Amino acid sequence: MKKYMIPFILLLCIQCKNATTLSEEERNFATTELDRSKDNLLQSIKGLSSAQLYFKPDEVSWSIAECVEHLTLFSTELFEILEESLELPANPERRKDVKFSDKDLMIYVRDRSKKATTEEDFEPKNTDGNHTATLTTYLDNLEKHINYLKSTQDDLRNHYVNFGTVDAYQIFLYMAAHTNRHIEQIEEIKNTTNFPKN
């Protein structure tokens, strides 16, 4: 039995050596960006009335409440995206396919000069029933994401998400930048000439 255990232990050691856990700098960067985007969002919608939250600049544009719901849907889906990426074996060979550095990815995602349409899964549908419930779901999800990043030993750098390509760590940076992108959209709505006064 012992002769079979030695190769098994060696294999475990090799896997541990090859695994890449996040550095404290990476953890701090991602959690700080997520916290900052949350604070910016809360500041952007603070004190808005129901008329202001549900105002639409035109028939095809989203309201502020719909922007928040879209962000909430994405934050919920992130759990599944992450789970799917971690189900596959870690693959350091795919690092060459990652298109952006961490900071460049955030700049790219936030850039509203590049218009984009969202997938059907992320289209606002009044899922939670009201804006307050939606915002609560968003904040709960964000807290879970941040707690995960602070403690995970998962090899996020060598697992990948297939829209990009970005690695599993960068999906959290994508989320922060995506929130900031829609904060800019919210500010544009608030600056519309016929935006309700209260």
Structural summary, described in words:
α2 (24-45) packs antiparallel against α6. The protein contains 7 helices and 2 strands, in the order ααααααββα. The protein has one domain: Four Helix Bundle (Hemerythrin (Met), subunit A). 60% of the residues lie in helices and 2% in strands. The chain has a two-stranded antiparallel sheet with strand order 1-2.
Unreliably modeled segments = 1-18
Strand element count: 2
* Strand order in space, largest sheet: 1-2
Order of helices and strands: HHHHHHEEH
The domain count comes to 1
CATH architecture, by name, is: Up-down Bundle
Looking at CATH, which topology would you report?
Four Helix Bundle (Hemerythrin (Met), subunit A)
Distance linking N and C termini: 76 Å
Mean residue pLDDT: 87
Major sheet, described briefly? 2 strands, antiparallel
Radius of gyration: 20 Å
Principal-axes geometry comes out as elongated
Please provide a brief summary of the model.
By secondary structure, the protein is mostly helical. It is built from seven helices and two strands.
